[in-house]
Amino acid sequence: MIARSAARHDGRRRHLGRFIVLAFGALGTCGVSGPSLLQHRPLVVWNASASVPIGLYRVRSNTQLIRGNLVLVRPPAAVADLAAARGYVPTGVPLIKRVVATEGATICGDERSVFINGEPVAVRLEADRLGRPLPTWEGCRVLKTGELFLLMPDVPGSFDSRYFGPVGIENVIGQLVPLWIG
């Protein structure tokens, strides 16, 4: 009888744990996919994409963003429209990207590569997985105050600044800190 009761208790505990994870995931999804529903920065987000580890992230204010920070960002309007039209992410869903360059960094792009301060940091794909040409920019420029270069260097298929260029800091919703990744 005691063993059966303990087993039932363990089953409830596992069920409660799953419920908590799903509840936080739902809250995070609301924060990410429904920004019009929430006028303020979400507290947590659930990432289900392959660009960064799948899991639950806390959203902190974006004071003092530095290289290496993972951020939740609303892409510029033209970029968001293209991403939605191609089915990369639904309209209104922010992106998760890493800050790789800030004010004063020299960003250069040619047909196939992106460089930061003369160092190669990313290769550009010519087309997405459905064969559609990806946007490109070429030349060099120094990032101004309030500009960030967002890139997932280890994810060749990431739709990031390698294709759409620098992003204004006003587009950043907040810095992400992992709470639980699986």
Q: How many DSSP-defined strands?
A: 11
Number of helices: 3
Pattern of helices and strands: HEEEHEEEEEEHEE
CATH homologous superfamily heading: Umud Fragment, subunit A
- Molecular shape: globular
What is the CA–CA distance across the termini? Answer: 35 Å
| Class from secondary-structure proportions | alpha+beta
Could you characterize the architecture of this molecule?
The chain has 182 residues and is α+β, with helices and mostly antiparallel strands. It has helices spanning 2-33, 77-85, 161-164; strands at residues 44-47, 55-60, 70-73, 95-101, 106-109, 113-116, 119-123, 139-142, 147-150, 167-168, 172-181. It is 25% helix and 30% strand. The two termini are 35 Å apart. The longest helix has 32 residues, at 2-33. The protein is built from three helices and eleven strands; from the N terminus they run αβββαββββββαββ. β1 (44-47) and β2 form a beta hairpin. It has a single domain (2-175), classed as Umud Fragment, subunit A (Ribbon). The protein has a seven-stranded antiparallel beta sheet.
